[in-house]
């Protein structure tokens, strides 16, 4: 897919911006704090309906927005035709339109534009907390499978209700039968989430391993492993998953009541990375961890292509100049002429200039 134009209004430090005739490779240059990340973030928000760096939508609205709202829109060429996408963010929530038609559910809007973002904070996917990895899985699976987002939302609702009930049960005996009902609902949505995550990781593994071998000159074998809070690490069918989930819930019920929280389920699961059999978060060097994150992102591009038959748009925020020339050319060559790319940098130093010939250049200063 290809983004032909973008328009922003009162988005972060952009009062108004319109970019047309975007290129295959777009190089966005500017000093610190001028609006480079804000620009690629806006594309990410249009694709995912949330930012990659904050969960608070109000931070995205310009401080002095006259109507208290931010607007993002883009014209996107897709395999099946051109679409005009619009999003409005305000204190009243978010609205999204496709070709002028307001979408009833945001989860159905997700996927109208597909992006893969690679930013410095992605190193956290390898070395950060399990929550970062779960968010990575949720965002990436959600953008190719709207039904995943549905189950995730339902799961989170049930989880909240169930945890509230657990807290009340600490000092009273009545109300335990309600817990059985929540258990069933929790498990029903939970197994869908776990099954889709395992499926996703298995597919991602195939690409990530081969890309990682390429980047490391064949020297490193990368392995991805789902770490569940119930059942086994292998793929299991839904009936088996359901049995295992229910079993674990019954085994830990007393402990859950004592602690007032739900201890089993996809909200406690994790993903680990192994390089040549050793856990990357523990034994990996900074460079190995960075390369792992890069392999993952590149694998995602192929995976999305496999799922929807089109390449997503690649957003590289501040990361190209961090890579050595070999990794830079691997990155650019793999996707040249296949994947539209937006690259931000503070200057051309450290960039592999040869490879960027033909890029459309934008200079950003103070949100203009
Ligand atoms: P760096 O090279 O340091 O990464 P950048 O060009 O990527 O810089 P951005 O993250 O895009 O910088 O931020 C640019 C500016 O936007 C910052 O100075 C920030 O204060 C400002 N900003 C952030 N949120 C808002 C907002 N809601 N309204 C107005 N300005 C904002
Ligand atoms: Mg930035």
From TrEMBL:
- Give the source's domain of life in one word: Bacteria
Q: Which residues form the RecF/RecN/SMC N-terminal domain?
A: 2-346
One Pfam family assigned to this protein is SMC_N
Q: Is DNA repair set as a keyword in this record?
A: yes
Its GO biological process annotations read: DNA replication; DNA synthesis involved in DNA repair; double-strand break repair; SOS response
**One GO CC annotation:** cytoplasm
A GO MF term: single-stranded DNA binding
What keywords is this UniProt entry annotated with?
ATP-binding, Cytoplasm, DNA damage, DNA repair, DNA replication, DNA-binding, Nucleotide-binding, SOS response
Where is this chain primarily localised? cytoplasm
Q: Which residues bind ATP?
A: 30-37
Instruction: State its role.
Output: The RecF protein is involved in DNA metabolism; it is required for DNA replication and normal SOS inducibility. RecF binds preferentially to single-stranded, linear DNA. It also seems to bind ATP.
NCBIfam families per UniProt: recf (TIGR00611)
Which family is this protein grouped under? Belongs to the RecF family.
What name does UniProt use for this protein?
DNA replication and repair protein RecF
What is the organism field in this record? Answer: Paenibacillus spiritus
């Amino acid at each position: 897919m290809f983004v032909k134009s973008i328009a922003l209004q009162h988005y972060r430090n952009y009062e108004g911006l319109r970019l047309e005739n975007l290129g295959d490779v777009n190089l966005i240059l500017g000093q610190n704090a001028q609006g480079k990340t804000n620009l690629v973030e806006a594309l990410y928000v249009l694709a995912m309906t949330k930012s990659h760096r904050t969960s608070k939508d109000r931070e995205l609205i310009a401080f002095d927005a006259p109507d208290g709202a931010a607007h993002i829109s883009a014209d996107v060429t897709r395999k099946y035709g051109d679409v005009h996408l619009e999003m409005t963010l305000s204190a009243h929530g978010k609205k999204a339109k496709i070709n002028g038609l307001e979408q009833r559910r945001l989860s159905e809007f997700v996927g109208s534009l597909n992006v893969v973002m690679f930013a410095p904070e992605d190193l956290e996917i390898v070395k950060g907390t399990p929550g970062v990895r779960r968010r990575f899985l949720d965002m990436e699976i959600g953008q190719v499978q709207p039904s995943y987002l549905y189950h995730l939302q339902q799961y989170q609702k049930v989880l909240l209700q169930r945890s509230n009930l657990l807290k009340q049960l600490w000092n009273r005996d009545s109300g335990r039968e309600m817990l059985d009902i929540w258990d069933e609902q929790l498990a029903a949505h939970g197994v869908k989430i776990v099954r889709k995550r395992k499926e996703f990781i298995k597919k991602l593994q195939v690409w990530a391993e081969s890309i990682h071998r390429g980047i490391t000159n064949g020297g490193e074998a990368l392995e991805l492993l789902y770490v569940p809070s119930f059942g086994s690490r292998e793929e299991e069918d839904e009936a088996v998953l359901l049995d295992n989930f229910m079993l674990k819930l019954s085994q830990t019920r007393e402990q859950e009541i004592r602690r007032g929280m739900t201890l089993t389920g996809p909200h406690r699961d994790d993903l680990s990375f192994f390089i040549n059999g050793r856990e990357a978060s523990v034994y990996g060097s900074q460079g190995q961890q960075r390369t792992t994150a890069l392999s993952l992102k590149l694998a995602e591009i192929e995976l999305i292509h496999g799922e929807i038959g089109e390449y997503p748009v690649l957003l590289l925020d501040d990361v190209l100049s961090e890579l050595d020339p070999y990794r830079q050319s691997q990155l650019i060559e793999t996707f040249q002429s296949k994947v539209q790319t937006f690259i931000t940098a503070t200057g051309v130093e450290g960039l592999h200039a040869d490879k960027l010939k033909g890029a459309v250049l934008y200079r950003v200063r103070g949100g203009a």
